[in-house]
Amino acid sequence: MNAHENRQILSLELNEQTLPAIEQITDGMPGGFFIYHADGDEELIYVNQALINIFGCSSKEEFTEYIGGTFRGLVHPEDLQNVEESIYNQISMSSKGVDYVEYRIIRKDGATRWIRDYGRFVHTSLYGDVFYVFVEDATERHLRELSDARALQMARERLEVLRQLEHETMALRMVNEILSSGMWSMEFNRLGEMVSVNWSEEFRAMLGYHDEADFPDVLESWSNLIHEEDKEYVLKEFYDTIADYKGKKSYSVEYRMLTKDQGWRWFWTAGKLSRREDGSPVIYVGIFVDITRQKLTDEALNAQRKLLEDALQQAQQAKQARSIFLHNMSHELRNPMNAVTGFTTLAKKHIDNKQQAAKYLDKVMSAANDLQVLIENLLDISHIESGKVDISETSCSLPDILWELESIVRAEAKIRQLELSVKCSGLAHENVFCDRQQLSQALMNLIGNALKFTPAGGKISVSLTESQGAPEGYGFYIFKVRDTGIGINKEFLELIFDPFERKHAAIPSGGSGMGLGLAITRNIVETMGGSISVESEEGKGSEFSIAVQFSLA
Ligand code: ADP
Question: Distance between CA 428 and CA 425 in Å, rounded?
Answer without folding.
Answer: 9
